[in-house]
Design a protein that fits this description.
By secondary structure, the protein is α+β, with helices and mostly antiparallel strands. The protein is built from 6 helices and 5 strands; from the N terminus they run E-E-E-H-H-H-E-H-H-H-E. It starts with a strand and ends with a strand. 28% of the residues are buried.
C-alpha cells in the first residue's frame, strides 16, 4: 500500500516514484461522462457500418449488432488507455492518465480487460456499488476494477 503525504496528496509507491491521486475519484466521474458521449457516437458509427454490412451480406452481418454496444466501449478503452497517451479523451481533458500499479505503461489488452471489468460491474447494481465503495474507501481512489486489472488513475503532472 502506498504512503500518502496528506499535505500534498502525493503517493510514494515504495520505488521512489510519486503519483498524485488526491481527488482523482470525483474527476473520474466527469471524465466518464465525457467518454460516454464519445462512446455513444462511436457506437452509432459502428451500428451504421454493421447495418450496411448486413445489407451486403443479405442479413448475416446483422448478427454483429449483438456485439456493437459492448465492443464499442472496450475498443475505445483499448485504443485510448492502451495508446500512447495512456488515457481516455475525457481523462485527458481533465488532466488524468492511467498507469499500471507498478508504474509501467498500460498495454491494449490490459486496458480492454479493465474496461470489461468495469462494464461487467456496471451491468449489475450491486457489483457497481461495491466497485464505487472500494474507490471511496481506498486512499488512492482505486476502484475494484482497477485492482482487478492492476491499474491506477493518477494526475498527469
Amino acid at each position: 500500500m502506498a504512503n500518502t503525504d496528506l499535505t500534498t496528496g502525493r503517493q510514494d509507491n515504495g520505488g521512489g516514484r510519486e503519483w498524485r491521486t488526491s481527488g482523482v475519484l470525483t474527476s473520474r466521474l466527469f471524465a466518464w461522462l465525457i467518454d460516454l458521449v464519445i462512446i455513444a457516437l462511436w457506437t452509432v458509427m459502428l451500428a451504421i457500418i454493421v447495418g450496411v454490412l448486413g445489407f451486403l451480406t443479405f442479413g448475416l452481418g446483422w448478427f454483429l449488432f449483438a456485439l456493437v454496444v459492448p465492443a464499442s466501449g472496450i475498443i475505445y478503452s483499448m485504443v485510448t488507455v492502451g495508446g500512447a497517451r495512456q488515457s481516455t479523451i475525457g481523462m485527458r481533458m481533465l488532466g488524468m492518465r492511467v498507469m499500471r500499479a507498478d508504474g509501467g505503461r498500460v498495454d491494449a489488452i490490459t486496458a480492454g480487460a479493465h474496461a470489461l471489468f468495469f462494464y461487467l460491474a456496471a451491468s449489475t447494481g450491486l457489483l457497481w456499488l461495491a466497485d464505487v465503495v472500494i474507490g471511496v474507501i481506498d486512499d488512492r481512489g482505486r476502484m475494484g476494477h482497477d485492482y482487478l486489472a492492476g491499474l491506477v488513475v493518477v494526475w498527469n503532472d
